[in-house]
Amino acid sequence: MARPVKSTAEATQSQAALFDEGFLKKLEYLYIVSKKVFAGRTRAERRTRKVGSGIEFADYREYVPGDDFRYLDWNIYGRMDKLLLRLFEEEEDLYIYLIVDASDSMQMGSPPKLHYAMQIAAALCYVGLANLDRVSIVTFADGLKERLPPARGKGRIFKVFDFLRSVAPGGTTQLSGSLRAFVHQNKRRGLAVLISDFYDPGGYEDAINMLRYNRYEPFAIQVVDPAEMRPRLKGDLQLIDCETGEIREITVSQGLLAAYIREHERYCQELAEFCTAKQVPLFRAETSVPFDELILRIFRKGGFLR
Amino acid sequence: MTLLGLSLQKLALIFGVVGAAVTVLYILKLRRRRVRVPFSKLWDRVLREKESTSLFRRLKRLFSLLLQLLFLFLLTAALGDPRLSTEVLEGRNIVLLLDTSASMKARDAEGGQTRMEEALEQSRRIIRGMNGADVLMVVRMDAQVTPLSGFESDEKALLNVLSEIQATDTRADLLRALKLAGDALRGKKNPLLILVGDGAYPEELVGLVDLDDKSGQRIRAKAPPKTPAAKTRRKKKTASAGPELARVDLRGITARFIPVGRSRDNVGIVAFNARRYVRNKLSFEVFLEVVNYRKQTTEVDLQLYADDQLIDVQRLKLGPEQTARYTCDPDARQRKRKAWCDLAATGEMLEARLVAPGSTAEKPRALDAFPPDDRAFALLPQRKKQKVLLVTKGNLFLEGAMLLEPNLEVLRVAPRAYSDTLARKVDAIIFDGSYPATTPTTHFLVINPPASGGPFKVTGRLRLPLITDQDTSHPVMRWVTLKDVNISDSASFAAEPGVKVLAASFKQPVIVARRRGGTKIAAFGFDLTRSDLPLRVAFPILILNTLDWFAGDSEGLVTSYRTGETWEVPVPGPPTAQTVRVTRPDGGQVVAPVSDGRALVHGVLAGVYRVEGDGGATRQIAANLADPVESQVGPRRDLVLGGRTLERPSGFGAGLRREIWIYLLLAAVLLSLVEWLTYNRRVTV
Fold first, then answer.
1. In B, which residues are within 8 Å of A270 by CB distance?
2. Residues of A with CB below 8 A from B50's CB?
3. Which of A245, A268, B55, B219 has the most C-beta neighbours closer than 10 Å?
């Protein structure tokens, strides 16, 4: 069980902006589920392939001189006259990468999607830290931007808050290029939680595949604003793309609006189908859904947290 | 198609400029609301699908421009005020002369309507068919010619004017109406006179109108038909001041005629009067004339009522266009013609009725198409005894003269016994050689008045005056001759304004009369006992004439009046009344002024009128159409005025406003609604 977090005035302010203390306590009981088993660097609470001084039995092997006699299975030696050494699973830490989209499109919405994404990131970060995992946060837009080096232990949560607060949003969304840079920079494999609206004109497929091919375990969280899904537009408008600045003049009629809603839904559906096909868990996080409900109910129900 | 508003060049200019502006505005980019979106790629996809039908979309936008231009065209065309006919290039000044005379009451129009109703319907059509630039004045034509509106173009106001119009029981004064119309239209552009009526106007009158070719081609004059009515009309012609003076100049004015009426079916009473006999005021005789205007022999029942009690019925068989005259002159009696003489009914109000044989009160049958002349009224004077106060020291001549009249109740008093109270109780006073200090309000005769203080100013005395001048037209002097009357001496009166000189000796008035505030006053300037007048036959007649004049019961008493004229009706009650209240036969009430003790009443309806003076005193008077011209209801389909047959009016579209601009504006409004709807529904965007 983690110790109570030591608070400072600054930390409290940042924390208050993201979630309250009661929520933090609830997060402490959560655990990020990883299907794959990654090799950790230090002993922790995650089981690994590595056999060693754990308590969970893993396998036997032939005794070679120099091995610790304490792990010899004497019962087998008595029955079969063979010296076999008992192997135990080593429990190590897990690398969790929270890759947050900080492009211009994430600043839209009410509340802004980036704010919602940061709350998710902070919450997951806290869950990871509380489970002694190594949590790293990376932001990106048209490339990788700020990076919080892997941290461990709940005491680091304030650094996480500081980091999130210092994120400077802006830029176009380039998922593929950004994640290519990410995999090159982070050699330790682990969970890669991609938090984005996936509004990338270049597509999101390459980016997710990039994580998969580099043996990360990707999770996708799509942050959407209801106003984007079902906009209330009417009349003669000049649409300006918030990232590219591209201008398009249209006259929005009921029919056009319905067509847009259908198109947006189709876009989301394509993303979901792609993720399902690639066995990448995808969660759609609508900013209208209360944040704690998303974390405590929807993520748990979806098997992302336990 | 003609344009009464802006010219075609101006319209083209407006359309060109505004149309170009509309097109420029159409081409100009719409200032749109800016909206930031997170991912325009999605919109691109949607729009790509939509723009797959871009040709249709472009056409729709073009449709929007076309709608705008059509809208502009309609507005511009409305500014031009286009008209369908070249006839209505300019507004017309129209006088609608509506005949409201008695003959318009004939019920022979379509659908059982009266001619008046049909004429009003035709007039409404004319008004509704006016074009926007036309102005019209409604003039009512009966005995009085009355403009009912100014030159108006407001259809509603004109129709309101028509709704007030009713036919009267009077004759149409055609010449005066045409004069008024001519005066109103002279000098105006496109003058047009439309006469709506039955055309039953005297031939000699319609010939007194000058028209030019605008109104119709000249035709050869035809001799007027020699009907009984026409004969009457010719007689009336002589009464006019002169044909040339009466001529109406309508040259330069287009005259049109709308005929109403179809039937000449009428039998009517054209004259009705009654009088009491002078010698016996309990009896009376009736003068009556019935004319059959039909072309065939007709039988009618002539009924005579006294105070609504039937006292006699006679069946008349009248030949085509024959007149039956009831009169009691000796010639008629000798020829044993029909007469109602020596009638002794108790009633005062006489009524003559013509009814169809066999018609009863329960099952009335219409006699003809023109009921107003089937009834006529007359009122006999009341048969009450006249109270006369004789103020004298004793004069057997006077008393003897009054003994001749049984309806007189004479009270003789000495001058000293005279009082105002006594004077107020009698109907007339005779002062013989005396005169009171205060002038009585009762009618009175003064014989030999004092030199000063009397009712007439005395200028001197005449010795042995010889009566040289005599006004026999005055009721007092009727049937009286004073020539060779010997008079010892007489006062000479001043011929002041208001004083009527009845007899004079070399221009020196000897017998005078006057009215003063309703009081009739007469004076003899001499002493009866100092003349031989009492020995003459003229004396009792003179005295009785004077008393009859006081009573208003003279030979010339009118027992019925003719409608359409201004009647002088003796004021009931105190003659000092300034106004009287008159109740018309239809129940309406008017206030009539009083002049010299006579109320001036203008009546347009036949029937019994009730005149109410001060103190609740009332008098009834009777009024009749009594007009052979109006009873001649035979209509004319073609009216000939000034030798030209008037054409029917044209250029009045029935049921359609001539102002096309209204429809253009309506279309523009409708179009704007369509445009708005299509825009709102995003059909044209």
1. none
2. 256, 259
3. A268
pLDDT average, residue stretch A188-200: 91
Considering only CB atoms, B42 lies closest to which of A225, A243, A264, namely A264
Do residue A133 and residue A260 come from a single domain?
yes
Contact A240 B37 (CB under 8 A): yes
Search chain B and give the residue with CA nearest A268: B42
Whether residue A239 lies within 8 A of chain B, CB to CB, comes out as yes
Domain boundaries, chain B: 2-80, 87-263+635-657, 267-379, 386-551, 564-624
pLDDT (mean) for B282-307: 85
What residues of A are in contact with residue B61 (Cβ under 8 Å)?
none
Whether B35 and A233 lie within 8 Å, measured CB to CB: yes
List, for residues A220-265, the tens digit of each pLDDT value.
Answer: 999 999 999 999 888 888 899 999 898 888 888 888 899 999 999 9
Q: Over pLDDT 70: what percentage of chain B?
A: 85
Name the amino acid, one letter, at B131: N
Say yes or no: A82 and A15 in one domain.
Answer: no
Topology (CATH level 3) of domain B564-624: Immunoglobulin-like (2.60.40)
Domain B267-379 identical in fold to domain B564-624: yes
| Min Cα–Cα distance to chain A from B37, Å | 5
The answer to whether position A285 is within a domain reads: yes
Contact A236 B50 (CB under 8 A): no
Contact A101/B at CB under 8 A:
no
Same domain, A168 and A136: yes
Domain contains A235: yes
pLDDT digits (tens, 9 = 90+) for B366-416: 778 888 888 898 887 666 678 899 999 988 999 998 887 777 889 999 999
Assess contact for B474 and B548: CB atoms under 8 A.
no
Q: What strands, in cross-sheet order, belong to the sheet with A191-196?
A: A144-151, A134-140, A95-101, A191-196, A217-224, A282-286
CA distances from B42 to A83, A248, A268, A279 (A): 68, 12, 11, 26
Residues of A in contact with B33 (CB under 8 A): 235-238
Number of CB pairs < 8 Å for A and B? 84
Instruction: Annotate B132-189 with DSSP letters as a single string.
Output: TT-EEEEEEESSSEEE-S-SB--HHHHHHHHHT----SS---HHHHHHHHHHHHTTSS
Give the count of domains, chain A. 2
Residue B28 is predicted with a pLDDT of 73
**Domain B87-263+635-657 belongs in CATH node 3.40.50.410:** yes
CB contact under 8 A, B50 and A259: yes
- Are residues B456 and B504 in contact, defined by beta-carbon separation less than 8 angstroms? no
Read off the pLDDT of residues B259-275 as tens digits, 9 standing for 90 and up.
988 887 888 888 888 87
Q: Domain range spanning residue A49?
A: 43-92
Q: Which fold has domain B267-379?
A: Immunoglobulin-like (2.60.40)
pTM passes above 0.80: no
Same domain (yes/no): A74, A189 = no
Flag whether A100 is in a domain.
yes
Specify whether the CB–CB gap between A96 and A124 falls below 8 A. Answer: yes
Superfamily of domain B386-551: Class I glutamine amidotransferase (GATase) domain (3.40.50.880)
Q: How confident is the model at residue A34 (pLDDT cuts 50, 70, 90)?
A: low
Residues with Cβ < 8 Å from A76, sequence gap 6 or more?
Answer: A60, A82, A84
Shortest Cα distance, chain B CAs vs residue A263, angstroms = 7
Residues of chain B in contact with residue A201, where contact means CB-CB under 8 angstroms, are 39, 41
The answer to whether residue A99 sits within a structural domain is: yes
